[in-house]
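Changelog-linked ticket: glutamine example.
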Amino acid sequence: MKIDLKNLNIKTAHQHLIKGDFSSEELTKECLNVIKEKNKDINAYLEVFEKNALERANDADKKIKEGKYTELTGIPLAIKDNILIKGQKASAGSKILENYTATYDATVIKKLKDAGAVFLGRTNMDEFAMGSSTENSAFGVTRNPLDLERVPGGSSGGSTSAVAMNSCLGALGSDTGGSVRQPSSFCGLVGLKPTYGSVSRNGLIALGSSFDVIGPIGKTTSDVEIIFNTIKGGDDLDSTTIQESKKVYPVKSREAGISLGVKLFNRARIIGVPSFVNEIGGMDNFAKNNFNESIKRLEAIGYQTKEVSLPNVKYAISAYYVTLPAEASANLARFDGVRYGLHKDGENGIDDYLKTRGVGFGKEVRRRIILGTYVLSAGYYDAYYNKAQDVRDLIREDFKSAFKEVDVIITPTTTGSAFKIGEKVNDPVRMYLEDIFTVSANLAGIPAISIPSNKKEDGSFDGGLPLGLQIIAPQMEEDVLFEIAKNFLGEK
Ligand code: GLN
C-alpha cells in the first residue's frame, strides 16, 4: 500500500500497521524521505536519528507480528531538543549545550519506548524554550510549512513544523507559558498543555520548574490523547508529579458528552467566555470574528455558553515575566562550563564561567538571566518576585471561582495567525504579548488545549492561515478538553 503521510494520523496508521498494509519500517522510511526532502527549507529537525529510528521500527514490526503492541507501536514521532533521549544529543537550542549527550532517558521517553514508539529526531526550539517564534534558536530559525515566510510559533516550533510538514505523526513539545499551544495554533494542529504535575519533568531541561510541562502535538485530538495517556502519571523521579495518578488517573466519572448529548448531571456542559477577550488590544479582526464564530459553533452542537470574569488575568503576563525569569535564572546557573557542554578558558575559575556563559547563551537567555537575578535580589525581592507570586495566587483563585459556574473556559490561543519571520524578534515586549492568552493556564497549573478553529472540510484554513481555539479546564480534567475538542472538530 502506498503510504500517504499527509492523510495519515496515529490512529489510522496504527490500523494499517496491525492489518499489515505497511510495516513500521516502511512508514519510518517514508518519514525519513520527507525529512530529506523538506528539512533543508524548514529546519524543523536539528538532527535525524536515521539508524536508531529504523532499528526501533524493526523491533516494532516484530512486536506487531507477535501481537504485543500499543497504539504507538511503530509510530514515528519527533522530540523537542530539550527532552533527553539516552545516547543522543540534547542542546535545548543552545550553543552552551551543543555537544551535550544525554546519559539517561527522560521518563516520558522511557514510557514512549515501552509503548514501542519510534523517534525520528530532535526538533529545533527557541533557546532554553524562551520565545514564541523559534527564532531564538542558536541553530537557525524554523519556518512554518504552511508559509515559509512565517514563523511556526514557539518555543516548540520545530516539533509543530515537523508534524505540519507531514514528516512524522506526532511530536512532543514543552509548555511553560504557551510553547505547545501557540505553535500548534500557528501550524493548524492540536496541542495539549497538560495539568502541571500530570506528566513527569524528569529528563526535561528545566526552564521554569513551577510551570514546565511536557505536552503532545498531533493532527487530531485523538492522537494527542493517545500520546498523553502514554506519558502521564506519577513518577518517583519528579516529586511534583501527582502521585495518585500512579495507579489510576483520577478522571471524574462524568457522562461523556456525545455530540448533542453533552450531559453533565443532566445538563449541557457550560462553556465560560471571559469578558477580557474583547478588551485585549492588538487582537486582529479576523481572529476576533473567528473566536465569535467558534462560540456559535459550540452553541450549535449543544453547549451552553456563559460570560465569566477573571479579574486578575490582565496581570498574567506581568506576573509570568517576573516569576519565569526568576526561576530560569536559578535553573540556568548550572551551566557553568564545567559540568555540561561548552567550556571556554579564561584567566581563572570565575573568568571561565563568565566567558563560557557570555559566549554560550544567546541574547534572550542573557536578558532573562539578568531580569531574573534582578527580581530576586535583596531589596527588590518583595517588590517584584513576592508581588508576582501574590498575583499568581489571585489568578489561580479567579479560575477556581469561575469553575464553580462553568465547566471549561475558552479563549483564542493567540491574537492572530502566524507572523512574518523578523517581525517581532527585535521587540521583546511584543514577543512576550504572544503569550497573553496562554500563560494564565501555566500560572494556575491547569490543563489547556489548542485546536484549529478555522479549518475547512477540505483541510485548508479559512482566510489562508490557521488560528487556534484554546479550551481551559480545571486540574486533571483533560478528558473534558478532549470531549469538547472532538465535538468541535467533528472527530469520532
Ligand atoms: N513564550 C513564552 C516564553 O518565552 C513561553 C515559553 C514556553 O512555554 N516555553 O517564556
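Closing comment: Example verified and attached. The first strand starts at residue 45 and ends at 48. Confidence is low (pLDDT under 50) at residues 245-265.
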